[in-house]
Amino acid sequence: MKIAVIVFPGSNCDIDMYEAFHTVCRADVEYVSYKEKSLAGFDVAVLPGGFSYGDYLRTGAIARFSNIIPAVKKMAEEGKLVLGVCNGFQILTEMGLLPGALKKNDSLQFVCKTVTLEVENTHTPFTTEYEDKELIRIPIAHGDGSYYADEDVLEDLEVNHQVVFRYHGENPNGSLHDIAGICNKEGNVLGMMPHPERVVEQILGGTDGLPLFKSLLKAGVQA
Hints:
This protein is α/β, with parallel strands linked by helices and 223 residues long. The protein has helices at residues 14-24, 69-77, 87-94, 151-159, 210-222, and strands at 2-7, 28-33, 44-47, 81-85, 101-103, 111-119, 135-142, 146-148, 163-167, 179-183, 189-192. The strands form 2 sheets. It has a 9-stranded mixed beta sheet, sandwiched between helices. A two-stranded antiparallel sheet has the order 5-8. It is globular and about 40 Å long.
C-alpha cells in the first residue's frame, strides 16, 4: 500500500500526517504536491489539515481547483481510500466528494482543545480497529468546523450510516447532529474535523487516533 499526503500552499499538518504513517506505522508514504496531475501508483490519498491558500474566499474553496484534485476524485471513483482531516475535510466537501459544508464555529472563535468523540460506524475501512460506540479523545483545531447540511442530506447521512464520528458530551462548534466526521455512501472517502494524527503515540498525549491508521492499513492489505 502506497500513501500520498497531498501538500497545498498553507498546509501545516502534512508533516504530522506523514510521520504518523511513516514513523509510527512504518507505512510507505510520500508527499505529493498540489501541482501534480497524477496519483498513479498510490492506493490512498490524504488531504491534511492547515489553511490551504490561506483560507481566502472560504476554507477549501480555492484548493478544490488545484491540479491534483481530478486525480483525487479518480481515486475515490475507483474505490481507493481518500482521507481528509480538518482542512482536508473542508476540501472534500468543496470538491463534492462529501455532502454538506463546514461553516464558522458558532462561537465565531478558533477552537483548539481535545474533545470526546463517539465512534458511530466501525464498518468503514478507517474504523474497523475501533469498538462500536467507543469513546475516544482526539484534538481539534479549527475556526470553520461546524458541519452544516440540509435536512434531507442529514437524514440520508443517518439512514445510510454515513456519520462515522460524533461529538460526545460537548459540541465544540455547533455541528448539526453533533457530526465530527462522515463518509461517502461507498465508505471509501472519510472526512473529519478532529486530528487523529496528533494522538498516535503516548508521548503526544494518547493513542486514540492510532486505530484509524491501523484500520486504513489493514484495509489496504486485504484489498
